Amino acid sequence: KECACAYTLQIPLGSLVEVILIDEGMTFDATHPFHLHGYSFRVVAMERIGSNVTVDQIRAMDDNGLIRRNLVDAPIKDTVAIPDGGYTAIRFLATNPGYWLLHCHLEFHAEVGMGAIFEIGEHEDFPPIPDNFPTCGDWFPSEKKTVDVNFTVPKYPIIYDIIPIPAGENELLPLLIAASPLIHPHESREMSHEISVASSFHRYYSLALYTAYCLSIFCFHL
Predict the structure, then answer these.
(1) What is the pLDDT of residue 139?
(2) Which domain holds residue 115?
(3) Which of 61, 85, 143, 192 is the most exposed place for a label (fewest CB within 10 A)?
(4) Please, what is the angle between helix 55-63 and helix 200-212, to 10°?
């Protein structure tokens, strides 16, 4: 059964995506570390405007060519700071299909909703689920009062109603690693394309994210 998320944003596979994250600087000074799963991105612009800034100000700056993008040798990251009272612009090629989380790496902020999910591509683009991939199920706590420091993965499937994983001792970790989705590297030449060269979708999507990613409107004022 699938669920819907208010912060799920659909992106066609293969798109060039630019995201501008804005911190309006409300309430108190705080720089937010933002992390994107499934991708590395180029940090094409970053600036602190002042103690506070509005989404409309950043939009006007961009319309007037005042956001200076580095499209030649922008650094590659998967986590980046959003300066208080400023913005950070990132770009990536949407070549890795799936659901990928973008979130603040301050745990409390992530817990209260400072994040979003990128749905890259359609379900038919997603890689198949690996055989014997671990799934969620019931968990029965042990009656032991202490932690077994010599704990190992059981050699035989457990008898509870969790879908068993046929892994012997010390075999679970390699199984999980083998089942992990790949993170595709991005060519620097491809990432240096001017946004005007991209399709109208990329430009529109970039502008739409000004509002979606104003950090002060997720769940509370910062």
Answers:
(1) 60
(2) 8-126+182-217
(3) 143
(4) 150
Burial zone of 110 (CB within 10 Å; 0-12 exposed, 13-18 middle, 19+ buried): middle
Q: pLDDT below 70 — which residues of the chain? A: 1-6, 27-28, 137-222
Rounded Cα distance, 137 and 68, in Å: 49
Q: Is residue 77 part of a domain?
A: yes
CB distance 169 to 150 below 8 Å: no
Please tell me the total count of domains within the chain: 1
* pLDDT for the residue numbered 5: 53
The two beta strands, 32-36 and 41-48, are unpaired
E strands of 107-149, at which residues?
Answer: 115-120
For the chain, how far is it from start to end, CA to CA, in angstroms? Answer: 35
Report pLDDT for 183: 29
At residue 42, the pLDDT reads 94
